[in-house]
Amino acid sequence: MRRIAWVVMLLADAGLLAWGAMAAVAPEHLIGPGSAPILPAGYEGFTGGSWQQLTATSAPTAAYITLLFRLYGAYIVAFGVVAIVLAVTAPLLVRSAAPAKT
Questions:
Q1: Radius of gyration (C-alpha) of the chain in whole angstroms
Q2: Quick check: is 102 in a domain?
Q3: 16-64 tens-digit pLDDT
Q4: N or C, which terminus of the chain has less Cβ within 10 Å?
């Protein structure tokens, strides 16, 4: 049972890493609610305004929001890497901490 949980945790960590990488590298292609790109969908859902109107009237603001989302993605990538390293090394630590059989 522990091995199954370990595999599920490792798969979840890999998914988190993939999502974060996509958010950091190409957020315009990351699918959000309603199969729309996540940045416009998130902005429109939160503010009720139009992403196209924001980019037309205040391009620097839209660029700043995109930069923040990319930084968030990079943070998620770093967290995913740490989670995967912990998931991979945890079974090794448990085995090394077990008392030796005589």
A1: 20
A2: no
A3: 999 999 999 999 889 988 888 999 999 999 999 999 999 999 999 999 9
A4: C
